[in-house]
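Section handout 9: paired folding examples.
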Amino acid sequence: MKKIFFLLLAVVTLSPAMAQNENKDKKKIKKEARMNRINAIAKQEEEGVLTYTKHTVFGLKLTTDGYGGFLEIARAQSVNRALLFQLDIAERKHPKEEKLSNFNNSSQIIFGKINYFYPIKLGVQQQFLLGNKGNKNGVNLTANAGGGASIGLLRAYEIELIDPVTNKPESVIYESADSTQFLNAYYDGTATGPNLFKGWSHIKMTPGAYAKASLRFDYGKYNEMVNAIEVGVTGEFYSKKIPQMIYQKQKNFFFSAYVAIMFGRRK
């Protein structure tokens, strides 16, 4: 009876340890297989074999006049070339924007701002490989150039003020009918700045086109991962001038530089 008891005790004690070792062995084998596959793909790339045919990338960027984000889907044409299809959404700020504190409360307002400006761009770029990292370490350098269509989305800068007649809050945008109230609210300190939900009922769109050029530094640990920094310039032209600020010259051509950080995966 004692022998059976000690045998069962040994089984109960050793089983978790054996299972743990077995799991470790499986993980080790799986990791080694993955490393062998990655090394084989890296060797094929060095020999000029097309191993990855597409990638999907998400990015965030800071521009000289705003910020934004984008989605990119690529299709390889050869080891050295690819087509990049991009959807880019950003907010462009006017260089003369200045936030002012309201006299009556802590909210801030941008003096003279009449519209938020959101460029939405859909286009394609040609990517050229300048330097391949060749293995799981190093930096992959590419040059990208292209362009496409752009829509300038204008969202009204809708402020809130107290109506002197009814003494109730009233939302006002800069239009010919409300321009006097809109401007007076800045000077007398009664205006409250808009929030994220205001102004969407007053949307205007202006069509345009854009061109873009950039350099991309992909430092991903493995070739199947995309971890990159991109620097570049963008030029946008719209069919009519974009009203962003009162008393400032309106323009329909915008030039900006940017830096972006990108994350994605190749297949």
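Moving on to protein 2 of 2.
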Amino acid sequence: MEEKKGFFRRLVEGLTKTRNNIVSSIDNIFSGFSSIDDDFYDEIEEILVMGDLGINATTAIIEDLKRRVKEQKIKEPSECKQLLIESIKEQMNVGETAYEFENRQSVVLVIGVNGVGKTTSVGKLAGKLKDQGKRVVIAAADTFRAAAGEQLTEWAHRAGVDIVAHQEGSDPAAVVYDAIQAAKARKADVLLCDTAGRLHNKKNLMAELGKINRIIDREYPEAFRETLVVLDGTTGQNALAQAREFSEVADITGIILTKLDGTAKGGIAVAIHSELGIPVKYIGVGESIDDLQKFDADEFVNALFHIEE
């Protein structure tokens, strides 16, 4: 519980910038308008878009807000704040099935461009799963980035899990093949694969992921499949663009949103979910192994509006 509390505090800090942009402006609207009219909704809409929530999510939130106001016959703008918060939470709810892979024998592919914290996220996720009593094997299949293997090996030792790695520049699919054999032999619950994500060369990436997927289908057909993309929360709309491009080359089932620790454009979590239908499943707020947590819509929106439960 203490860890959770600390995480919430760090999340609150990490969302400061978004909060300052969105929340203070929204509070001004709720106190500044005397009636609920089109201008009132337009102002809210503009602030949400500026907060990186994206057009789709914003439209859905505004529609939902209008519906609630009508149903509850609300006349005072100040009474809309709680409804708006509920509406944002509803947009982001990932549901119980989001973490199905944790309860099954599974293969989790983790993709992401360099510099977003992908390798670190794989290490942290391995640690979290190990803490839940799972047997974890990591495949170091990002063989193109110098030092990715070393970095991941260090995380694996820290988390106390097995790692399968080849030398730099070797075939990622071959690493995955060996890792599957190791996962079977060791009766692993989860095989975590750190894979490359060179988006500027989509054809190669597509071919590589295709090859990896074929090997998993052939060698480990019984495994439950999960494909997570790691995105840097500080990049806002750019993260959304990356998520969109990755979803063109792979069947993405979830997002790990990192670096929500200072300059983050936190609204992007809402946008990605709404625009692409891909839920944010984990968020990272710092460097230590506990700084990766399951995404909790209530907690996230509370941190955004700085509401202590």
